[in-house]
Design a protein that fits this description.
Largest sheet: 6 strands, antiparallel
Number of domains: 3
Shape: rod-shaped
Low-confidence stretches: 13-19, 213-222
Strand content: 15-25%
Helix content: 55-70%
Distance between the termini: 110 Å
Mean pLDDT: 80
Radius of gyration: 41 Å
Strand order of the largest sheet: 4-3-8-7-6-5
Amino acid sequence: MLTTALLITTLGIIHRLNSLLGVIPLFLFYIMAFIWLFVYLIFLAYSDHGAALYFYRLLIPVKSYMYVFLMLFAMHFTKPNIHTKKQIMTVSLIVPTIVLILTFIAPETIFRRLDIIMFSPTIQLSIINGVWFYIDAVYGYICLLLAIVFFIGHYRVSSILYKWQSSIFLFSVGGYLMLDLYNISSGYNDIGGVFGLVALCLILFYTYLYFKTSDLSFLAIGTVFNKVSSIIIVVEDNGKILFINTKGRKSFTSISPNCIGMLYQDLMIDWMKERDGKIILSNGMTVLSVNEGAAKYYEYLKSSVSDRNDLNIGTFIELRDITVQQESTAQLYHLANHDQLTNLYNRRYFETQCDKMNREKYLPLSFISADLNSLKHVNDTYGHAYGDKLIIAAAGALCQFTPEGGCVSRIGGDEFVVIIPNCPEDDAKAFIGNVTAYISRHYEEPYGKLDISLGYAIRAVMSVSIDQVLKEADMVMYKDKERKKFSNRQNSRPYNI
């Protein structure tokens, strides 16, 4: 009956095998517990003294393996981010493996003398223990004590939801330790130690695997969140990650191969730092921009999760990939704010910048008006394609000398405005001088020299409106245009027409 109960519990472990923390060492613990119970029952049932003592010797290393796997389960469950699990498992199995080998090749090192005095109705043994018996016993109980220490640490940092779980682990392992100490002191004549082992196995099963699938953990059971393209993270109220879907594990694998149990804040800080991430507020959304070989954008969605009693037990987080939408939005934004021919800012963006720079911190604010001369003649003589080339050349000349922070906009067919914040009059004159010198040397085939009229005005105080300054800049520009018209009539034409 006891063997059947333990076997059913083991099958339950297999059925529920998942990516739950520590499930492999727990599964191995169940196997060892099943083997120990099976060997113990054979020991009780054998009428041949020699065979019975052989099985009794096997109980020692098997129990040692069982304690080691229980300790490994506690360690993996409470410290999931340890990256040397294989090495730790290998080292921890050295002592029980040595004892198992000695059981077959040198049994006297474990029991110097082992005899059955009375076999029925109860078994009485005459035992003189060897040195390896004490080494194995001390090592096994150290493993049990370490498991208790791990669970105490887990209780101290657990969320409200899971403190009860650590408490049950503590009481069940501690209770079994007491029963086993009493049982071994009586030469395994007390059946209470056997029932204590079965009880421990059942408590671990229901506490860890049954209740682990309740409340927040129900999210991790199904396959729904492992199929979606978003990154899904479930965080406990203590900030530790309870569940992360397949997409999330792939995205964060460079940070941690197993994010379960890791602090969510630490994971995100490391991930954003590794990928040069930025947080952007866009149209009421919180967007994470990261570099994954190419720019990638995730919408950040967060909501609280409550239990059946409306107690806040954690947070549900979704990182939704919106790279395509974000790129489309960026393209639409560019089209809405840029001139298609010259790729300069358009009138709409220019007006936005005027509103933005209507602040005292931008003073002195310089406005430079620019206008192409004789564009109509070029269009009529050479065609609009050449006229467009002339407009593009003028845009290039203005952009070449606009300092960082300045804004060049095409506000009409051949009209341009340059805004330069914190630009005194001398700098504005220098800008116009540089552009004038450049266009005097610049020729566009087939029509010859590039000719642009320029004018500037400075907004030095807030009491003068931007509209007034723009009108003043236009007036200066038109005076330059009239001067050039008169000069062209007196001399030669600016273009070969």
